[in-house]
Amino acid sequence: MWRHIASNVITLLVVLAFLLGGVILWGQAQYTAEGPLDEPICLRVPPGTTMRGVSRDLEGEGAVTSGAIFRVGADYAGREDDLKAGSWLIPEGASMADIVDLITRGGASTCGTEVVWRIGVTDTETVVRELDPAESRFVERARFDPAAEDAARPEIYATMRDRADTRFRLAFAEGITSWQVVEGLKSVDVLTGEVGEVPPEGSLAPDSYEVRPGDTRASVIARMQEAQEEILAAAWEARADGLPLDSPEEALILASIIEKETGVAEERRQVASVFVNRLRRGMRLQTDPTVIYGITEGRGVLGRGIRQSELRGATPWNTYVIDGLPPTPIANPGRASIAAAVDPDATDYVYFVADGSGGHAFARTLAEHNRNVARWREIEAERADE
User: Whole-prediction pTM value?
Assistant: First the structure.
């Protein structure tokens, strides 16, 4: 009798073990199989959220077939306690294993809201954007002048700014002056502290920088300076032979002039060739942005045309009256202008003037240049008549 009972118990245990093994294999297959999402979603994970809470949200969004399998799989993989707060873009068809990896890996949020301060040469604006997971692109929600009174700021800004998963970014325009950088940083209300002194002109890399609430303004300046040092050092190391430049500092000065002379990417190296050819021939650079910098010293924009008296006025930067390069940069040049300064096109150009299209007409001789200038005057007159 006891043998019969024992035999039955053993048989039952074998069957249960077999069933349990089958359940485990089925669960593993479900955990790693392609998920049910037909389009991406943005999963928000606030601080303090548990894996159980995330599994409920995922079930509600139709991103997983079983919250229980999701939790068991995360626990089995040793990721139960690695959940990271943020906003995570869950792609279509993502498996449970893929989702666990996304929300426990860490790093910057991959979707959600982004607040961008665009600090430019003439103005600064704040843009609030939110990622549309279905289209995998940001959609603008608000845009405003950050220097305006708080009452003028859209309500969505305060809402998004205080959310834990919002990302913050600063975007500096190429050709911005150091004074303009410092002034722009004052309007970024998630930063703290003051900037003691305006950094040397040209020493800041105009680029995009992600910041976190509580970061200091001085730390942003330090990052910009470090980036510019690296960019300039690499460009100088790869410079063309025979340049009439004696140091990286002179390359930076020339790059700042190129930056202010053209906004057309394709002609930066042509503009660089004009200035390099003039330096080689001992000709004055005669470039208007250096006159403007001598007037403003980088504190804002001139906002009007240059007077004839100012073209003749003696300042350390006015290349109509000084020989060679000015003593300092006249702006913070971007990477492309620095590259153009150390590797200009090989041309015979020594003149250029606006051509009416946003670019410039280049010339090898004064006679050719005068014809280009006459054409530009005609364009100006036609526009005035219109």
Answer: 0.77
